[in-house]
Amino acid sequence: EDAAFAAVLPKVEEAIARSAQDGVAEPHQLQQLVRRSVGKWVSDTYRRRPMILREVVTGIPIMWGTVLSAVLTFVITAAVVYFLMVLPMARYLARRARQQAAKEEVKEVMEVSELEVLKEIRDALVAQRDGSGQSPR
C-alpha cells in the first residue's frame, strides 16, 4: 500500500501543479483531476495483459484464457441444455411411447375378446333360429 501510494503521489502532485498553472482552483475540478490521474496510473500499472503463448504457432498469438473461457462456456451451456431439456424430453417421449404401446395392446386384446363375444352371439342366434338350442361348437 505504501509503495503504491509513493508511486502515485508524484503523478498527483504533477497534475495539481499543472492545474494551478492553468488557473484551476475549484475543489470539484481538482478532485476530478486527482481521480483521473490516479485512475490512469492504476490502469497503466495493473492493467490485465492477455496470456499469449507465441511458441505454439509461429506468427499467430493464441490467447489461451479466451479459448479456455469459450470452451468452458460452451460445455456448461451444453450440459445445462442437455440435462434440463433434452434428457427430460427423451424420458417423457419414451414413457409416452410405452403407454401408447400398452394402449394398443389392450385395444388389440379388447378387439379379440369383442370378436369372440360377437361369434358366440352369432352362434347362439343361429342355434336359436334352427331350433336346436345348441351351439354348433
Please provide a brief summary of the model:
It is built from three helices and two strands. The chain has 137 residues and is mostly helical. A hairpin with an 8-residue loop joins β1 (52-53) and β2.
Description:
By secondary structure, the protein is an all-alpha fold. 79% of the residues lie in helices and 3% in strands. The protein has a two-stranded antiparallel ribbon with strand order 1-2. Helix 1 crosses helix 2 (27-46). It is rod-shaped, with a radius of gyration of 43 Å.
Name the poorly predicted regions.
Answer: none
Mean pLDDT: 80
Number of E-type strands: 2
User: What proportion of the residues form beta strands (DSSP E)?
Assistant: under 5%
Strand order of the largest sheet: 1-2
State the major sheet: 2 strands, antiparallel
Shape from CA axes? Answer: rod-shaped
Radius of gyration: 43 Å
Write down the secondary-structure element order.
HHEEH
Give me the number of helical elements: 3
Helix/strand/pairing class, anyone?
Answer: mainly alpha
Fraction of helical residues:
over 70%
Distance between the termini: 108 Å
